[in-house]
Amino acid sequence: MRILVTGATGYVGSRLVTALLADGHKVLAASRNLARLRRLGWSDDVTPVLLDASDPASARAAMDAAGHIDVVYYLVHGIGQPGFRDSDNAAAANVAVAAALPECDASSTWVASCPTPPKTRRCPST
Predict the structure, then answer these.
(1) Which residues does the UniProt record annotate as the domain NAD-dependent epimerase/dehydratase (predicted)?
(2) How is the chain split among helix, strand and coil, in percent rounded to 5?
């Protein structure tokens, strides 16, 4: 399968890329910083994709450049950065809209990070 992993340089994304490659998938590793991709041990085994999820035009361009994708994993987050709630929600929407475009033809999108609740809502504790 052709799989696009956004947030590929992050903790979860980098490990997912390793597992997908081990399973024989064609991996497109997306990052807003391609130099960071080159630092990872699997960088020669993936197709690098420049994608800044905060920019709708960048998300569309990345999906268009990637061509057919079977699955998109969305693993982008900005936890701890000022205003991360709004920026994470906008970034998730940008990638979801771009992945839904006919040029992308993604059959499914998996979101491992999710839109954050408003500050007035609290997540239940377990």
Answers:
(1) 3-99
(2) 35, 20, 45
Q: What are the domain boundaries of the chain?
A: 2-111
Q: How confident is the model at residue 95 (pLDDT cuts 50, 70, 90)?
A: confident
pLDDT for 20 equals: 97
Chosen CATH of 2-111 out of 3.30.300.110, 3.40.50.720, 3.40.50.150, 3.40.50.9100:
3.40.50.720
What single letter denotes the amino acid at residue 85?
A: R
Residue 67: helix, strand or coil by DSSP? coil
**Structure token digits, residue 121:** 């809502």
- What's the token pair of residue 101? 């475009």
Q: Tell me the sheet residues that pair with 90.
A: none
Strands (E), 1-126: 2-6, 26-31, 47-50, 71-74, 108-111
Tell me: the pLDDT tens digits for 9-60? 988 899 999 999 999 999 999 998 999 999 999 999 999 999 888 888 888 8
